[in-house]
Write a structure and sequence with these properties.
Elements lengths: L31 H15 L12 H10 L5 H14 L3 H5 L3 H7 L7 H16 L8 H5 L6 H12 L8 H11 L10 H11 L4 H17 L18 H4 L20 H14 L6 H5 L5 H14 L3 E3 L2 E3 L3
Antiparallel strand pairs: 1-2
Amino acid sequence: MPLSELTSHTRAAPPDPDGTASSETPPPEASPAELVRTLNDWYRREARDLPWRRAGFGAWGILVSEVMLQQTPVARVIPRLQEWLARWPTPSDLAASPQAEAIRAWAGLGYPRRALRLHECAVVITQRHEGIVPSDVEELLTLPGIGDYTARAVAAFAYGRRHPVVDTNVRRVLARCVDGQGEPAPPNARRDLAAMEALLPADEAEARVFNAAAMELGAVVCTARSPRCGACPVAEDCAWRTAGRPPYRGARRPAQKRFEGSDRQVRGILMRELRSADRPVSADELDLLWPNARQRERALAGLLADGLAVAVEGGYALPA
């Protein structure tokens, strides 16, 4: 259902648990402001206690957490984030360390290019911003490896700026609650940001809460595979639930290739060897790690191109 129709359409009664339509007259449709208020109130009561949500958690910590949380579960991130910030509490601390140490500290979080970009980011913040994480989205976007989502998340959550912040969870909440779709369409930054902007409160503090609340709802209640509509604070105003939770029939993102046997797996095996070595790893040693020579060479070439490995006398190593 288009957002413009959110307050004007007539809702059918949702089906009863036994699958039959309810004979009760549905309650009046909530306005977008009421929906936001309900969700924000729920978040203040029910939000998980996560480190980056606590008072006094600084902009650098939030930036690191947002980078770590990209494609990595919260439970795995929390202890690693605490270790990282204990070792490098400021951007200048990380900038003063070798890139290799950042890559080693990233072990187990996946996609190690993020560690390299975070180190580069710390160098730029130290050299160009006097060691202070910028608060402006445009300035944040100039940092290495910082994309639109991360820039907006840091500006909103670290500095309280009013910006729509849209991740996978938010897109799913908007698709179901507003558009009546079981799944979101493939990402489209202009469309997705406009949809969130249309609901975002004018007040900066409430906008910050709503960004977090929509994410939280998608993460713990309005989940992809098993949505818990009975626990949803805005279930009565959900267009998808009102329509009987119809299956999604729109466009989908291409399925991610399986990990087993992929170039990603080979890259990970090579990276694990490089991280654990205190000397250069020879080409002969790398040859023993994966039987398919062509795939192994392709994975090594990718690591070299990404700056995650360098050729040195005696073989290969992490960058200095």
